[in-house]
Amino acid sequence: MPGKEYEHYLHLSKEDLLLIIRKKDNENKQLQNRMKELKILKEKYYSYNMFHMKEIARLDKVIGQYKGLRK
Question: What is the per-residue pLDDT across 6-58, written as a single tens digit (0 to 9) for each?
Fold first, then answer.
């Protein structure tokens, strides 16, 4: 038995229910597409971050070598 918040659906016609289902289906598809886009962006920024972390570590080694030469 549905809760009171869903009782209004009992009064809708089949066509109205189908329209609601199609609307929710479209919303779900849009959300899934957006999530795919965000996953691609996440992977892109993760790879950029990893590149910068490696580059910083490399430059730290170079700076450390120069400091060693100055002493």
Answer: 788 888 899 999 999 999 999 999 999 999 999 999 999 999 999 999 999 99
How far apart are alpha carbons 20 and 15 in whole angstroms? 9
Please answer whether residues 35 and 28 qualify as being in contact, where contact means their C-beta atoms are separated by less than 8 angstroms. no
Give the list of residues 6+ apart from residue 2 with CB closer than 8 angstroms, or none.
9, 10
Kindly report the pTM of this predicted structure: 0.63
Reduce the DSSP state of residue 71 to 3 states and report it: coil
| Identity at 66, one-letter amino acid code | Y
Q: Where are the domains of the chain?
A: 13-70
Q: How many other CB atoms are found less than 10 A from the CB of residue 5?
A: 7
